[in-house]
Specification:
- With 324 residues, the chain is of the alpha/beta class.
- Helix content is 43%, strand content 18%.
- It is built from twelve helices and eleven strands.
- The strands form two sheets. The protein has a seven-stranded mixed β-sheet, sandwiched between helices. A four-stranded parallel β-sheet has the order 7-8-6-9, sandwiched between helices.
- A hairpin with a 2-residue loop joins β10 and β11.
- α1 runs parallel beside α10, α6 packs parallel to α12 and α7 crosses α9.
- The N and C termini lie far apart (58 Å).
- It binds 6-O-phosphono-beta-D-fructofuranose (F6P).
- 6-O-phosphono-beta-D-fructofuranose binds next to loops.
Length: 324
Protein backbone atom coordinates (compact mmCIF):
# COMPACT_ATOMS: atom_id res chain seq x y z
CA UNK A 1 0.00 0.00 0.00
CA UNK A 2 1.47 3.33 -1.04
CA UNK A 3 -1.18 5.81 0.11
CA UNK A 4 -3.50 5.64 3.09
CA UNK A 5 -6.16 7.98 4.49
CA UNK A 6 -6.93 8.75 8.11
CA UNK A 7 -10.16 10.17 9.53
CA UNK A 8 -11.90 10.76 12.85
CA UNK A 9 -15.62 10.09 13.08
CA UNK A 10 -18.47 10.21 15.63
CA UNK A 11 -18.12 12.03 18.95
CA UNK A 12 -14.65 13.45 19.54
CA UNK A 13 -12.46 12.06 22.30
CA UNK A 14 -9.24 13.36 23.87
CA UNK A 15 -6.35 11.37 22.40
CA UNK A 16 -7.71 11.33 18.84
CA UNK A 17 -4.92 13.72 17.85
CA UNK A 18 -2.30 11.41 19.35
CA UNK A 19 -3.77 8.62 17.20
CA UNK A 20 -3.70 10.79 14.04
CA UNK A 21 -0.06 11.64 14.77
CA UNK A 22 0.89 8.01 15.34
CA UNK A 23 -0.86 6.84 12.15
CA UNK A 24 0.73 9.62 10.10
CA UNK A 25 4.27 9.20 11.39
CA UNK A 26 4.17 5.38 11.30
CA UNK A 27 2.93 5.39 7.71
CA UNK A 28 5.44 8.01 6.55
CA UNK A 29 8.18 6.00 8.28
CA UNK A 30 7.14 3.04 6.12
CA UNK A 31 7.41 5.16 2.98
CA UNK A 32 3.67 5.74 2.54
CA UNK A 33 1.83 8.92 1.66
CA UNK A 34 -0.86 9.96 4.17
CA UNK A 35 -4.03 11.89 3.39
CA UNK A 36 -6.15 13.48 6.13
CA UNK A 37 -9.87 13.13 5.44
CA UNK A 38 -11.83 15.92 7.11
CA UNK A 39 -15.06 15.66 9.16
CA UNK A 40 -15.31 11.90 9.14
CA UNK A 41 -16.81 10.12 6.16
CA UNK A 42 -18.16 13.47 4.95
CA UNK A 43 -14.64 14.24 3.74
CA UNK A 44 -14.89 11.31 1.33
CA UNK A 45 -18.25 12.55 0.03
CA UNK A 46 -17.22 16.16 -0.49
CA UNK A 47 -13.52 15.51 -1.19
CA UNK A 48 -12.22 17.50 1.74
CA UNK A 49 -8.85 15.77 1.86
CA UNK A 50 -5.35 17.12 2.47
CA UNK A 51 -1.89 15.56 2.49
CA UNK A 52 -0.41 15.11 5.95
CA UNK A 53 3.34 15.42 6.34
CA UNK A 54 5.54 14.68 9.32
CA UNK A 55 5.23 18.28 10.51
CA UNK A 56 1.45 18.51 9.91
CA UNK A 57 1.04 16.48 13.08
CA UNK A 58 3.58 18.36 15.22
CA UNK A 59 2.27 19.88 18.46
CA UNK A 60 -1.01 18.02 18.46
CA UNK A 61 -0.27 15.11 20.81
CA UNK A 62 -1.22 17.26 23.80
CA UNK A 63 -4.38 18.73 22.28
CA UNK A 64 -7.95 17.59 22.94
CA UNK A 65 -10.53 17.44 20.13
CA UNK A 66 -9.46 16.39 16.65
CA UNK A 67 -7.49 18.45 14.16
CA UNK A 68 -9.22 16.51 11.35
CA UNK A 69 -12.62 17.57 12.78
CA UNK A 70 -15.34 14.98 13.17
CA UNK A 71 -18.96 14.35 12.31
CA UNK A 72 -21.61 11.69 12.21
CA UNK A 73 -22.49 11.05 8.56
CA UNK A 74 -25.94 9.59 7.77
CA UNK A 75 -25.26 10.00 4.01
CA UNK A 76 -22.63 7.28 4.36
CA UNK A 77 -25.14 4.65 5.54
CA UNK A 78 -26.73 3.75 2.16
CA UNK A 79 -24.58 1.80 -0.32
CA UNK A 80 -24.81 4.72 -2.72
CA UNK A 81 -22.93 6.91 -0.20
CA UNK A 82 -20.30 4.24 0.41
CA UNK A 83 -19.72 3.86 -3.35
CA UNK A 84 -19.30 7.62 -3.69
CA UNK A 85 -16.65 7.34 -0.95
CA UNK A 86 -14.92 4.52 -2.82
CA UNK A 87 -14.82 6.64 -5.98
CA UNK A 88 -13.13 9.45 -4.04
CA UNK A 89 -10.56 6.99 -2.70
CA UNK A 90 -9.81 5.78 -6.23
CA UNK A 91 -9.55 9.37 -7.54
CA UNK A 92 -7.20 10.34 -4.68
CA UNK A 93 -5.15 7.13 -4.84
CA UNK A 94 -6.20 6.17 -1.30
CA UNK A 95 -5.72 2.40 -0.96
CA UNK A 96 -6.65 1.96 2.71
CA UNK A 97 -8.07 4.05 5.57
CA UNK A 98 -7.60 4.22 9.32
CA UNK A 99 -10.95 5.13 10.91
CA UNK A 100 -10.67 6.54 14.43
CA UNK A 101 -14.02 6.53 16.26
CA UNK A 102 -16.73 4.45 17.90
CA UNK A 103 -18.71 1.47 16.68
CA UNK A 104 -20.97 3.59 14.44
CA UNK A 105 -17.79 4.61 12.61
CA UNK A 106 -16.68 0.98 12.37
CA UNK A 107 -19.86 0.18 10.43
CA UNK A 108 -18.76 2.71 7.80
CA UNK A 109 -15.27 1.17 7.86
CA UNK A 110 -16.76 -2.29 7.32
CA UNK A 111 -18.88 -1.10 4.38
CA UNK A 112 -15.87 0.59 2.76
CA UNK A 113 -13.78 -2.56 3.25
CA UNK A 114 -16.52 -4.66 1.65
CA UNK A 115 -16.49 -2.31 -1.33
CA UNK A 116 -12.75 -2.74 -1.85
CA UNK A 117 -11.09 -0.09 0.35
CA UNK A 118 -9.51 -1.92 3.30
CA UNK A 119 -10.05 -0.08 6.59
CA UNK A 120 -8.75 -0.53 10.12
CA UNK A 121 -10.76 0.92 13.02
CA UNK A 122 -9.21 2.43 16.14
CA UNK A 123 -11.65 2.64 19.09
CA UNK A 124 -11.94 6.20 20.35
CA UNK A 125 -14.86 7.34 22.48
CA UNK A 126 -15.03 8.62 26.03
CA UNK A 127 -17.77 6.07 26.84
CA UNK A 128 -15.58 2.92 26.79
CA UNK A 129 -18.53 1.10 25.25
CA UNK A 130 -16.75 -1.07 22.66
CA UNK A 131 -16.64 -4.77 23.55
CA UNK A 132 -13.67 -5.65 21.34
CA UNK A 133 -11.31 -3.66 23.53
CA UNK A 134 -10.84 -3.22 27.27
CA UNK A 135 -10.19 0.44 26.68
CA UNK A 136 -11.22 3.20 24.28
CA UNK A 137 -9.17 6.34 23.65
CA UNK A 138 -10.54 9.30 25.63
CA UNK A 139 -12.01 7.32 28.53
CA UNK A 140 -9.26 8.14 31.01
CA UNK A 141 -9.24 11.86 30.26
CA UNK A 142 -13.03 12.05 30.52
CA UNK A 143 -13.00 10.22 33.85
CA UNK A 144 -10.32 12.49 35.26
CA UNK A 145 -12.29 15.55 34.15
CA UNK A 146 -15.45 14.18 35.76
CA UNK A 147 -13.54 13.29 38.92
CA UNK A 148 -12.13 16.80 39.31
CA UNK A 149 -15.55 18.34 38.81
CA UNK A 150 -17.25 15.97 41.24
CA UNK A 151 -14.56 16.77 43.82
CA UNK A 152 -15.55 20.43 43.48
CA UNK A 153 -19.21 19.54 43.91
CA UNK A 154 -18.32 17.60 47.03
CA UNK A 155 -16.77 20.72 48.60
CA UNK A 156 -19.98 22.67 48.28
CA UNK A 157 -22.24 19.71 49.16
CA UNK A 158 -20.20 19.16 52.30
CA UNK A 159 -20.30 22.81 53.34
CA UNK A 160 -24.10 22.90 53.04
CA UNK A 161 -24.92 19.38 54.26
CA UNK A 162 -26.47 18.74 50.86
CA UNK A 163 -26.87 15.93 48.40
CA UNK A 164 -25.36 16.37 44.95
CA UNK A 165 -26.81 14.38 42.05
CA UNK A 166 -24.28 14.34 39.21
CA UNK A 167 -25.04 13.03 35.74
CA UNK A 168 -22.02 11.88 33.74
CA UNK A 169 -21.87 10.88 30.07
CA UNK A 170 -22.26 7.33 28.80
CA UNK A 171 -25.23 6.68 26.58
CA UNK A 172 -24.79 2.90 26.33
CA UNK A 173 -22.28 2.14 29.08
CA UNK A 174 -22.08 3.13 32.74
CA UNK A 175 -18.29 2.87 32.92
CA UNK A 176 -17.64 6.58 33.44
CA UNK A 177 -20.22 6.61 36.24
CA UNK A 178 -18.85 3.45 37.85
CA UNK A 179 -15.19 4.41 37.96
CA UNK A 180 -15.60 8.11 38.77
CA UNK A 181 -18.25 7.19 41.34
CA UNK A 182 -15.75 4.99 43.16
CA UNK A 183 -12.94 7.53 42.82
CA UNK A 184 -15.14 10.29 44.24
CA UNK A 185 -16.62 8.25 47.08
CA UNK A 186 -20.17 8.41 45.76
CA UNK A 187 -22.87 7.28 48.19
CA UNK A 188 -24.35 5.32 45.34
CA UNK A 189 -23.96 4.98 41.59
CA UNK A 190 -26.97 4.58 39.32
CA UNK A 191 -26.29 2.90 35.98
CA UNK A 192 -28.53 1.20 33.48
CA UNK A 193 -26.57 -2.06 33.89
CA UNK A 194 -27.80 -2.46 37.49
CA UNK A 195 -31.28 -2.98 38.93
CA UNK A 196 -30.84 -0.19 41.44
CA UNK A 197 -33.34 2.63 41.15
CA UNK A 198 -33.74 6.04 42.78
CA UNK A 199 -35.39 4.23 45.72
CA UNK A 200 -32.03 2.54 46.36
CA UNK A 201 -30.25 5.90 46.44
CA UNK A 202 -32.83 7.18 48.92
CA UNK A 203 -32.39 4.11 51.10
CA UNK A 204 -28.59 4.52 51.04
CA UNK A 205 -28.88 8.15 52.06
CA UNK A 206 -31.24 7.31 54.91
CA UNK A 207 -29.14 4.43 56.17
CA UNK A 208 -25.80 6.28 56.03
CA UNK A 209 -27.27 9.29 57.83
CA UNK A 210 -27.52 7.20 60.97
CA UNK A 211 -23.71 7.10 61.09
CA UNK A 212 -23.46 10.91 61.06
CA UNK A 213 -23.01 11.31 57.32
CA UNK A 214 -24.30 14.72 56.30
CA UNK A 215 -23.52 15.12 52.62
CA UNK A 216 -24.05 12.74 49.74
CA UNK A 217 -22.89 12.31 46.16
CA UNK A 218 -25.07 10.31 43.80
CA UNK A 219 -23.42 9.64 40.45
CA UNK A 220 -25.87 8.82 37.67
CA UNK A 221 -25.02 7.71 34.14
CA UNK A 222 -26.63 9.28 31.10
CA UNK A 223 -27.86 5.78 30.15
CA UNK A 224 -29.73 5.51 33.47
CA UNK A 225 -31.60 8.79 33.05
CA UNK A 226 -32.40 8.05 29.39
CA UNK A 227 -33.41 4.41 30.00
CA UNK A 228 -35.60 5.22 33.00
CA UNK A 229 -36.94 8.43 31.43
CA UNK A 230 -36.07 10.40 34.52
CA UNK A 231 -33.96 13.57 34.54
CA UNK A 232 -31.21 14.37 37.03
CA UNK A 233 -33.47 17.20 38.24
CA UNK A 234 -36.33 14.79 38.88
CA UNK A 235 -34.01 12.39 40.74
CA UNK A 236 -32.89 15.32 42.82
CA UNK A 237 -36.49 16.36 43.62
CA UNK A 238 -37.41 12.81 44.65
CA UNK A 239 -34.36 12.53 46.92
CA UNK A 240 -35.08 15.87 48.58
CA UNK A 241 -38.74 15.10 49.19
CA UNK A 242 -38.12 11.55 50.50
CA UNK A 243 -35.09 12.31 52.70
CA UNK A 244 -35.47 15.97 53.59
CA UNK A 245 -31.84 16.53 52.49
CA UNK A 246 -31.48 19.63 50.36
CA UNK A 247 -30.40 18.37 46.91
CA UNK A 248 -28.93 19.89 43.77
CA UNK A 249 -28.53 18.35 40.32
CA UNK A 250 -25.62 18.91 37.93
CA UNK A 251 -25.23 17.53 34.42
CA UNK A 252 -21.53 17.57 33.55
CA UNK A 253 -22.19 17.25 29.79
CA UNK A 254 -19.73 17.98 27.01
CA UNK A 255 -17.02 19.37 29.27
CA UNK A 256 -16.14 15.66 29.69
CA UNK A 257 -15.27 15.43 26.00
CA UNK A 258 -12.59 18.12 25.97
CA UNK A 259 -9.23 18.86 27.49
CA UNK A 260 -5.63 17.75 27.35
CA UNK A 261 -5.45 13.97 26.99
CA UNK A 262 -3.92 12.07 29.88
CA UNK A 263 -0.75 10.01 29.54
CA UNK A 264 -2.84 6.83 29.28
CA UNK A 265 -4.87 8.18 26.36
CA UNK A 266 -1.79 9.42 24.50
CA UNK A 267 -0.01 6.11 25.02
CA UNK A 268 -2.90 3.86 23.97
CA UNK A 269 -3.56 6.12 20.96
CA UNK A 270 0.10 5.92 19.93
CA UNK A 271 0.17 2.12 20.22
CA UNK A 272 -3.13 1.56 18.40
CA UNK A 273 -2.19 4.01 15.63
CA UNK A 274 1.07 2.15 15.07
CA UNK A 275 -0.65 -1.26 14.92
CA UNK A 276 -3.40 -0.04 12.59
CA UNK A 277 -0.81 1.07 10.03
CA UNK A 278 1.14 -2.17 10.44
CA UNK A 279 -2.03 -4.09 9.53
CA UNK A 280 -2.71 -1.98 6.45
CA UNK A 281 0.91 -2.29 5.35
CA UNK A 282 0.53 -6.08 5.63
CA UNK A 283 -2.45 -5.75 3.30
CA UNK A 284 -4.96 -6.51 6.10
CA UNK A 285 -8.21 -4.53 6.25
CA UNK A 286 -11.72 -4.89 7.63
CA UNK A 287 -10.23 -5.03 11.14
CA UNK A 288 -10.54 -3.26 14.46
CA UNK A 289 -7.56 -2.92 16.78
CA UNK A 290 -7.91 -2.86 20.54
CA UNK A 291 -6.23 -3.55 23.82
CA UNK A 292 -6.87 -6.64 25.95
CA UNK A 293 -4.91 -6.72 29.19
CA UNK A 294 -1.45 -5.53 28.17
CA UNK A 295 -1.69 -6.82 24.60
CA UNK A 296 -2.70 -5.11 21.37
CA UNK A 297 -5.25 -7.27 19.57
CA UNK A 298 -7.20 -7.06 16.34
CA UNK A 299 -10.47 -8.56 15.14
CA UNK A 300 -12.46 -8.70 11.98
CA UNK A 301 -14.91 -5.77 12.12
CA UNK A 302 -18.09 -7.89 12.06
CA UNK A 303 -16.72 -10.07 14.83
CA UNK A 304 -15.85 -6.97 16.86
CA UNK A 305 -19.30 -5.44 16.34
CA UNK A 306 -21.01 -8.68 17.40
CA UNK A 307 -19.18 -8.82 20.75
CA UNK A 308 -21.23 -7.99 23.84
CA UNK A 309 -19.81 -5.55 26.31
CA UNK A 310 -19.84 -6.77 29.89
CA UNK A 311 -20.21 -4.56 32.95
CA UNK A 312 -17.73 -4.85 35.80
CA UNK A 313 -20.10 -6.23 38.47
CA UNK A 314 -17.21 -6.89 40.87
CA UNK A 315 -16.27 -3.23 40.75
CA UNK A 316 -19.89 -2.25 41.32
CA UNK A 317 -19.96 -4.47 44.42
CA UNK A 318 -16.82 -2.76 45.69
CA UNK A 319 -18.45 0.64 45.14
CA UNK A 320 -21.42 -0.34 47.29
CA UNK A 321 -19.26 -2.03 49.91
CA UNK A 322 -17.15 1.03 50.72
CA UNK A 323 -19.55 3.92 50.29
CA UNK A 324 -21.29 4.36 53.59
O1 LIG B 1 -20.38 8.79 22.59
C1 LIG B 1 -19.84 9.82 23.32
C2 LIG B 1 -20.93 10.74 23.82
O2 LIG B 1 -20.30 11.80 24.51
C3 LIG B 1 -21.98 10.08 24.72
O3 LIG B 1 -21.56 9.90 26.05
C4 LIG B 1 -23.11 11.06 24.58
O4 LIG B 1 -24.33 10.43 24.81
C5 LIG B 1 -23.00 11.51 23.14
O5 LIG B 1 -21.67 11.28 22.75
C6 LIG B 1 -23.36 12.94 22.92
O6 LIG B 1 -23.34 13.18 21.56
P1 LIG B 1 -23.39 14.64 20.93
O7 LIG B 1 -22.03 15.25 21.12
O8 LIG B 1 -23.71 14.40 19.51
O9 LIG B 1 -24.42 15.41 21.67
Amino acid sequence: MKTIGVLTSGGDAPGMNAAIRSVTRTAIGKGMTVKGVYRGFNGLLNKHIEDLGVRSVSNIIERGGTTLYTARCPEFVPLEGVRKGVKTCIDEGIEGIVVIGGDGSFRGAKDLSNEGIPCVGIPATIDNDIAATDYTIGFDTAMNTAMELIDKLRDTAQSHDRCSVVEVMGRRAGDIALYTGIACGATTILVMESDYTVAHAIERINSTRTSRKHHFIIVVSEGFTAGNKISADEISRQIESETGVETRATILGHVQRGGTPTLRDRLVASRLGFRAVELLSEGKGNRVVGIKGAAIVDYEINEALAMKKTFDDEMYKIAEAISF
